[in-house]
Amino acid sequence: MSIEDILLEIRKRETFLITTHVNPEGDAIGSSLALALALSSIGKKVEVITQDPVPKGLKFLPSSDTIKQAKMIDRRFDAVITVDCGDLERVGFLKIDNIPGDILINIDHHVTNKGFGAVNFVEDAVASAQLIYDIMKRLNISLTPDIATCIYTAIMTETGSFRYSNTTSETFKIAQEMVSAGAMPWNIAEQIFNRNNIGRIKLLGLILESLDRSDDGKISWITVKEQMYRETGTSKEDVEDFINFPRSIEGVEVAILFRESNQGWKISLRSNGKVDVSNMALEFGGGGHSMAAGFFIQGGHEEVKKRVVDSARTFL
Amino acid sequence: MSIEDILLEIRKRETFLITTHVNPEGDAIGSSLALALALSSIGKKVEVITQDPVPKGLKFLPSSDTIKQAKMIDRRFDAVITVDCGDLERVGFLKIDNIPGDILINIDHHVTNKGFGAVNFVEDAVASAQLIYDIMKRLNISLTPDIATCIYTAIMTETGSFRYSNTTSETFKIAQEMVSAGAMPWNIAEQIFNRNNIGRIKLLGLILESLDRSDDGKISWITVKEQMYRETGTSKEDVEDFINFPRSIEGVEVAILFRESNQGWKISLRSNGKVDVSNMALEFGGGGHSMAAGFFIQGGHEEVKKRVVDSARTFL
User: Fold this and answer.
1) What CATH number belongs to A200-315?
2) Where do the structural domains in chain B lie, given as residue ranges?
3) Distance from A54 to chain B by nearest Cα, in Å?
4) A158 CA: distance to closest CA in chain B (Å)
5) Of A170, A221, A249, A272, which to mutate for an interface test with B (greatest number of B Cβ within 10 Å)?
6) Per residue in B106-164, pLDDT tens?
7) Nearest CA-CA partner of B175 in B194, B208, B136, B149
8) Which of A129, B79, B86, B199 is close enough to A31 for a disulfide, judged by CB 3.0 to 4.6 Å?
9) CA of B219: which chain A residue's CA is closest?
10) pLDDT in tens, B249-268
């Protein structure tokens, strides 16, 4: 299976449902919108439907207001395309024995993707948006400023603004093409990085007071308590990426975020490369990647902290 | 005057002093080292001498340990090249009537540069490093991984990791070339962004407690007191870029950093585009650019805060 099959299916079909994973981020939304805009531009009928809504920070994306939410689909399409979903369960509302379309097409850049579609375009790429761009080129669909904005945003967010290890010379080549086609790096970065609310910044201040680390400096952690949300008028969404602060400290190998939740603690783990934190998460019944993983654990604050930090020690 | 004159002078001369401005950052150090490595590779004798030392975060740059510090130069060179200096005073140790070389060459991307050199290559570019690259290409000097690392770092830091308004399609083209030539985006970003010490992060926590804003939300500020350095084992260097936190809040037009110093307050200003903060700084005897400016002011904390915030209001 390859890009050829996708091109064939797209050419011969008329109506498309495009969807992506729950808790969608830049690549999920950017790729879905880019594909929808591209297919619309050649006369196809396209709907983008997701289980979760577009995050506030991505609502600036062209056509993002056309994305609808659903928990199930009761219409049928000529084709259903999943974008950026490592497995079908990540979509949320789709079941393999109840696909609301004549064919299921799977486009994804996660190499662990097992190919759950009838046709699959799974390739190692900086972002799923790169695969969308490849498809567009092969279908002779022109880039518009709107499409370029969606693809640029996907790539920029997926590489942490060109800082992660997935950033290659190819990444910059695509970024260059997108900017030539009308994507505006400064405006996009302002939307993504400079739309903080004051509560989120105050929350960061409170959280950083909890910053601590092991004696050898290799494990560092921060803690978020429910009361901090109340004090600053924020919610758990606002904590996103704060784990990068302990991670950024020189010498740290494992960064941990302890997040108080209803019945226990949500733990996020980040590695600086040496430790595969997915192994650590597995021990607690969680999962993830080698660099980022997480799990849920019950218990009191001090007891949980000790258990998790002690476990991290064994992985160093 | 143009690049042609520079090429001519470089070709016919043998020994070079390369220097840059006080408080050097990524572009200053990256450009100086790239030029030094390039000229050395074609057999020239080159020394890089600066008034201030290489900042800790840039010591990973190839050959950065060859940069020497001086307050005056008592030898003579065939040519003295200033890189990234908007005017000669920015170098610190050079006086126009006492240049330790037969010719003064001025390479800079600040369009306000008046051309203080005997030959000048002043052109609007994302970073001075881009001009160094232009010179290299014209001299047929090949990129090495070391040179590419210096140029990439200069461009990456000067664009705030491709987020500032100076980021264009040309910027990405150069970044792509540098990565193809051996610059490693992830490693460089780790050196630049993930070498925090724990004190700096704790300092950020303390500073964010001081976060405040005007009733209309258009002016936001943070305050650093001397005691915070003592409490966290940090120094004023560690405050660098914290002003981006108030600046990142939605609705903020002017961000202000109040930094307690020996005899008063050092004020940094950042604009989100609407207000030209250099005009505001001028009123207090300071200076800067439209987006970033600063000044020094004496007085008590509350009084100074009121004066500066009141002044900001008049510029909205």
Assistant:
1) 3.10.310.30
2) 3-193, 199-315
3) 19
4) 13
5) A249
6) 999 998 899 999 999 999 999 999 999 999 999 999 999 999 999 999 999 999 999 99
7) B149
8) A129
9) A198
10) 999 999 999 999 988 999 99
